[in-house]
Amino acid sequence: METFFSLLDRHVQVCNSLLCVGLDPHPSDLPAPTAEAALDFCLRLVQETSHYAAAYKPNAAFFEMFGPEGWEALKRVIEAITAESHRTGSVIPVILDAKRGDIASTAEAYATSTFERLGAHAITLSPYLGKDSIDPFIANREKGVFLLCKTSNPGAGDLQDVVITGDPAVIGDHAVMGDHALMGDHVGSPLRLYEHVAQLAQTWNANGNVGLVVGATQPEALARVRALAPDLWFLAPGVGAQGGDLEQALSAGLRADGMGMLIPVSRGISRMKDRTKAAAELRDAIEHIRYSLSGQRTSSGGTQGKSASRLPPPASHLSPLANALLKAGCIKFGAFTLKSGLQSPIYLDLRRLITHPQILKRVAKAYAEKLSALQFDRLAGIPYAGLPIATAIALEMDRPLIYPRRETKAYGTQAALEGDFAPGEVVAVIDDLATTGGTKIESIQKLEAAGLVVRDIVVLIDREQGAGDMLAEAGYRLHAVVTLRELLDVWHASGAITAEQFAHVNEFLDGERL
Questions:
Q1: Which of 147, 287, 325, 421 could join 314 in a cystine, given CB atoms 3.0 to 4.6 angstroms apart?
Q2: Residues with a known catalytic role
Q3: 4-153+191-306: CATH class
């Protein structure tokens, strides 16, 4: 049966992200102190960051403060995330940050409220009242909990750092005597309360749905908890506004497989001018650190918990797209004559995307991620292959679209461009592929003749056969969602193509570079 953490694992693989976007509508960030303003704040934040979010973490307090209307707003935020999940085809987990803690029927009522009424997938809990206060939340293995273990606030140590000492006693599974905790047959260093919570969480995780909250502000504690709970997922707040160092936190808290840790960030995204860009940069920073750390673990031979392995390079989030292109028949291997007259062992036919709407949606989303970092007023699709793709992107991003005609109309308005625009506006040019760049220049000239400004050209695949250099010389920037070599690496690593096909196409590309 599905567990909460298997659901989380799957979405992390799909979006290639460990970023958890916090939804904390602080009154100071709202135009008015109302539930409606909080709802609008969160809905816009979800829309702007869903490409990069491994999970969302709404903070119940900032909704409850508005009374019944706030509770309804929280429900609608979670419903919006669910709708976004349906659109993207992958369930985006919602972790309710409520820090509940009670027993018996009260705990059952809180669990019903969280999972059945609000529709959240997980919740933060205080374990201070013991396992019977946790049981109602973990009875359904599809729902998860994150137990407060070592929190990121300054006063956390008042209780959490207390060393368990005193007369011989049995605390959980640990015999405690004097200043030393006997763990099994081994005498260890003094056991702190938060470490005891970590060990209890391991034993309570029979359904695979228990995780821990461990602050990123304290990497030493992160490392200690990871040693005690090698398999559990951590929610590690504190990066950004609270001063936690991202690299130190990941180094201390990641499992050996490069997973097991969500990095919640709220103000570091929501208070940025370009929140999409902020989320993208955080996601990418996390991925590059994960990749670097996986290489260090592999080269040193160190293992901890789950077996160490080398993560794929950060571009691995393109794996679903790469596999979808093969499934749609957009990539063929053999002997093909290109428009340039070259003989190629691979043929890319992205016109086929129009008969695969779900794959076309995925493609549009990948373009939108690349375009989110650019400044432009309108999209301009290049006929013919680039036009349906540009239309899908326009719908995905809710941005206006124009296109240059292949032939100027000889009747009616005799228009060279279709769609509304104003001279001086900046357009981002959309096409399917980049080979030499010649056809891009032709279309750009038509756009500039109408008074439009062109700076950026975005394609799905760059064949790396000179288009980037040619366009740069003409004063334009080429952006590709993926290069042909990156696709080859993904297909080869997954076994989708043979070693011979991989080598043959790379030899062809190497020859074209000479």
A1: 287
A2: 99
A3: alpha beta
